[in-house]
Amino acid sequence: MGLELRQQLKLSQQLVMTPQLQQAIKLLQLSRLELLDTVQQELLENPILEEAEALERTDSPDAESGTATLEDAAISREADWDNYLGEFSSTSKQAGTRESESLEEGMSFEARMTKATTLEGHLAWQMCLSNFTDKEVAIGECIIGNLSNGGFLRIELDEICETCYAEFEDVERVLSRIQRFDPVGVAARTPQECLLIQLEVLRLDDDPILVSLVRDHLEDLEKNRYKPLARKFKLSMEDLKSYLDLMQTLDPLPGASFSGGDSFYVSPDAYVYEYDGDFVIVLNEDGLPKLQMNSFYVETLASTKGEDKEYFQEKMRSAQWLMKSLYQRQRTLYKVLDSIVRFQRGFFQSGVSKLKPLILKEVAEDIEMHESTVSRITTSKYVSTPHGIYELKFFFNSALGLDDGSQVGSESVKALIKKLISEENSKKPLSDEKIAEMLKDELEVNIARRTVAKYRTAMGIRSSSKRKQVF
Predict the structure, then answer these.
(1) Is the separation of the CB atoms in 377 and 414 below 8 Å?
(2) Closest to 157 (Cα-Cα) out of 144, 172, 146, 138
(3) What is the chain's mean pLDDT, rounded?
(4) How many CB atoms neighbour CB 185 within 10 A?
């Protein structure tokens, strides 16, 4: 078989992702805050782009007659009236200087540069104020650096001894001192140890029944085994309840108050209002700059030659494509949201209980777009509705079949499960099987007990045995 080189022409079609198309796809899936950062970055890098600013009318009489000019406004704004009035001025120059100072200049450095206190920092601060030797400080830093979010020690004492080259007795002594720092019970190795330390600090460890309940019967208390405990300690149910009330004042997770994350603030991308029996969609463009091309660069482009002209032409194409992509993003968001409002009209009228099953394909076919486009435009987007702020992904949920052949959304079933549990008798909580029967009677929905348990667990609701309250 011989090998030879040959040239031939071949005509074919293929999809090429241009940089402009990649930018348009990226803008679709950006959240509102990320979009603002992207636009501001483009304003800094592209000299052709600028933010359009509307000229505001002044409140002077001349402005009402149409004779006011920009020069007049600048003169009135820049005039040094204090020097003109001299001694007859109501404020001195020093007072005017103080008023013009930034508010931050009068604040302390700690007030301007601050952050939330961490558990490690709080304990290290107390250790610095205590009478610790250098060796004990090293052991304490090792202990503090190996705490969980709840404040429990995640490392064995033998490992601390090897890491710090310390004796076991020294590590135990330092650990005992840290456990009595604020919050009391931190660096404990078990929940029982944590609660016992708190009882000791509160001087409640002289009660043998209370100590035994904490040390030996936490699992029985968790599973509501109250009657055997009452018989064992020869207590009435009222006396046992007083012990339980006292134990509930203790903190089983002493470090949890320091491990809370930063608050997550949401800026809705759109608002849905009910007006005259219909729903109106208003896109949130507050803070989003209105872009335009700089007229100076556009006019000088015709007289520019060489590499400078190629540079400005490239920047102009980039600016035009960005403005077009932003318009297309807002247009797509409006179309998707309008379709969601039509599909989920029952939700916007009555709330979560009327949420219908919906998938991306249905919305994509309704607005004649691809499913991937709908998926991108609904990612990290939020809408303000008459019933609260929701992510657009919330309106897409699976379906459960009804006896009449129709379907109901899974989120509606979850909302009803939550409502049934909130209205139950705490002494006789509803089991998952009972909830499934009630759903079948009320919604006529075919749902299994394990499905109820799955939804209940997803909502963070405990089982009926743990929800039961004897007292």
Answers:
(1) no
(2) 172
(3) 80
(4) 26
CATH of domain 399-467: 1.10.10.60
User: Which bin fits 135, alpha (ψ -120 to 50), beta or left (φ > 0)?
Assistant: alpha
Residues 257-312: tens digit of each pLDDT:
886 555 667 788 999 998 888 899 999 888 788 888 888 877 777 777 777 788 88
Cβ contacts of residue 17 below 8 Å, gap of 6+?
Answer: none
CB contact at 8 A, 226 and 237: yes
> Which pair of structure tokens corresponds to residue 39?
């636009």
Q: Residue range 105-127: average pLDDT?
A: 69
- Long-range contacts, 72-79 (Cβ 8 Å, 24+): none
Domain boundaries, the chain: 119-258, 270-395, 399-467
- Token readout for 139 is 């052991």
| Separation CA 165–CA 131 (nearest Å) | 20
Report the candidate in 369, 307, 299 with the shortest Cα–Cα distance to residue 336.
Answer: 369
Cα separation of 337 and 335, whole Å?
6
Q: Please identify which residue in the block is written with the tokens 């009660």.
A: 207
Q: How far apart (Å, rounded) are the C-alpha atoms in residues 133 and 21?
A: 64
SS3 at position 435: helix
Verify cis geometry, omega within 30 degrees of 0, for the bond prior to 19.
Answer: no
CA angle centred on 38, ends 32 and 42, rounded to 5° = 145
Q: 225 Cβ partners below 8 Å, 6+ apart? A: none
- Measure the N-to-C terminal CA separation of the chain; round to a whole number of Å: 93
Mean per-residue pLDDT, 214-229: 88
Q: How many helices (H) and strands (E) does the chain have?
A: 25, 8
The model's pTM: 0.57
Pairing of strands 382-385, 388-391: antiparallel
d(CA 178, CA 151): 11
